[in-house]
Automatic annotation (TrEMBL):
Protein name (record): Response regulator
Keyword Phosphoprotein: yes
Annotated ranges, domain Response regulatory: 2-118
Lineage: Bacteria, Pseudomonadati, Bacteroidota, Flavobacteriia, Flavobacteriales
Source organism, top-level taxon: Bacteria
Alphabetized InterPro entries for the sequence: CheY-like_superfamily (IPR011006), LytTR_DNA-bd_dom (IPR007492), Sig_transdc_resp-reg_receiver (IPR001789)
Length: 248
């Protein structure tokens, strides 16, 4: 597991890093300020966040950072009880693993709490995978959150039931004889994937922007050149109300 740490107290930040040495994790980001932290995690791509809540920083609170990044988060702060309701809302609305430990804490308390949290994250991450046949490759295990959208494969002709599947971390692939109507049977749930057009099913977590006036959504997909590129997908009139209800 890759860990990103955010705490505005230099001594506490160093202490948390030291506490992590005995656990099977890698600290990929350790920052004292929210703005710097958000910039660094774009590159370090952590699996888990460990955040202080009140940062003494007018830019963002730890809770706001958690809502922005939507990753499993352990709050390590002196005032966690004040935020319990917000933590519950974060867990409920974003379907995330969320826990907290209140300062001051000992090394043993911190390690026990994080070890339990790692077990929870591992369990739920194993539930958030699907197995699909990609072209000639059979039964490929894929993280649901790596799938950006699915599209009708127009190149195969109007009679074809083939689809193209686009990812955030690998090049697009073909899904042979794949029906949109049976997505839930494959583990691609309606709570994750919304219909924006008869030809597109989009992962709501990957919608970067919805342009109501011009009726399209923006997503980022992994391109053939190995970089993320922005795509604009049309939104049909019948599905505009769905997009308006999303907080994007």
């Amino acid at each position: 597991m890759k860990i990103a740490l955010l705490d505005d107290n230099p001594e506490q930040l160093e202490r948390n890093q030291r506490f992590l040495n005995a656990l099977p994790v890698e600290v990929v980001t350790a920052s004292l300020a929210a703005k710097t932290f958000l910039q660094e995690v774009k590159l370090s791509k952590p699996d888990i966040l460990i955040l202080d809540l009140n940062l003494g920083d007018s830019y963002m609170t730890g809770m706001e950072v958690a809502h922005e990044l939507k990753l499993p988060v352990l709050f390590a702060s002196s005032n966690t009880p004040e935020y319990v309701k917000e933590m519950e809302r974060l867990k409920r609305e974003e379907s995330l693993c969320v826990d907290h430990i209140t300062k001051p804490f000992t090394e043993q308390e911190f390690q026990k709490t994080l070890s339990r949290f790692l077990q929870e994250v591992t369990f739920f991450s194993n539930q958030n995978h699907v197995t699909l046949d990609l072209g000639k490759q059979k039964r490929i295990k894929l993280a649901v959150d790596s799938i950006v959208y699915l599209a009708a494969d127009k190149a195969s002709g109007s009679e074809s039931n083939n689809k193209q599947i686009y990812f955030s971390n690998r090049k697009s692939e073909s899904l042979i004889d794949f029906s949109f109507s049976k997505m839930e049977e494959k583990g691609l749930l309606k709570s994750h994937f919304v219909t924006i057009h008869k030809s597109f099913r989009v992962n709501v977590n990957h919608i970067k922007h919805y342009n109501k006036k011009e009726e399209y959504v923006e997503v980022e997909v992994f391109s053939v050149s190995g970089k993320l590129e922005t795509k604009k997908l049309p939104v049909s009139e019948n599905y505009q109300s769905i997009l308006k209800s999303l907080k994007k």
